[in-house]
From TrEMBL:
A Pfam family assignment: adh_short_C2
Protein's UniProt keywords contain Oxidoreductase: yes
Recorded superkingdom: Eukaryota
Classification via PANTHER family: BENZIL REDUCTASE (PTHR43008), CHAIN DEHYDROGENASE, PUTATIVE (AFU_ORTHOLOGUE AFUA_4G08710)-RELATED (PTHR43008:SF4)
Protein name as it appears in the record: Uncharacterized protein
One MF annotation (Gene Ontology) recorded for this entry: oxidoreductase activity, acting on NAD(P)H, oxygen as acceptor
Keywords assigned by UniProt, alphabetized: NADP, Oxidoreductase
Keyword set includes Oxidoreductase: yes
InterPro entries hit by this protein: NAD(P)-bd_dom_sf, Sc_DH/Rdtase_CS, SDR_fam
Similarity comment: family membership: Belongs to the short-chain dehydrogenases/reductases (SDR) family.
Amino acid sequence: MAPSLTCDPVTTPQSANVPQTQVGLDGKVIAITGANRGIGLGIAECCLSNGAAKVYSIDIGEVGEDFTSLSKRYNGRLLTVTADVTDESTIIAAIDQIIDETGGAFHGMVVNAGRTHHKAALDFTKEDIERLFNVNLFGAFYTARAAARAFIKLGIKGSIVFTASMASYRPNKRVPSTPYGASKAGVRNMTHTLAMEWAQYGIRVNSVSPGLVNTAMTYWVPQQPDWEQQLKYYGGFPRLAEVQELGGAYVYLLSEAASYTTSIDIPVNGVIGIC
């Protein structure tokens, strides 16, 4: 029988010496920014279905029916804490609250909060660009740093997983967004650099790059008159991804099965995400 996962790989000798072979999050406490809805909520669902003890959404907005329904399904193991990722002090306070409520348990941070804005580069205003970078890049850095400081203080070899984007590799020809793609490329570079810096603490840092995902932000994609033609041209799976289909990559990177995996990006794009 494969060894079971444990809450704290630092303080459990067997976990520290024997590589884990099961992909799961048994007993782990995971925080996800921007998980009140959309991709973040899909990641939360996957974490809970793979054994996470508790999942906290760190978000600035209100929760909706989908969040409430999922929390009920998992007997209150899905919770929310209010914070603004552009204000590092609120992220620190949110993590402190999580640690207080769980008695010192905090194992993984998914840096997921983001925003998008698609239009021609010449049409972006200064305010448009600053809003994108404040959330997607600066907020991501503040969140990761707050999580790393908490892991180091607790003596936990935690996992940080950023949500990047296929736009960080190449532009979407139909709906370009230079600031968005640049911010997500910055996230992928941050992943590699922080992984190098924080390896000395046993902290793993990775990212996931979704392609086209079925969320409120992408409602317009299949409504394009030539959408079917686009799918035939790009090949791959002829549909958008559902938010839950991204979760497996996050679960793996958050799990002890990935104990020697750091500084990588996992594209989840069904091929069409490369357009």
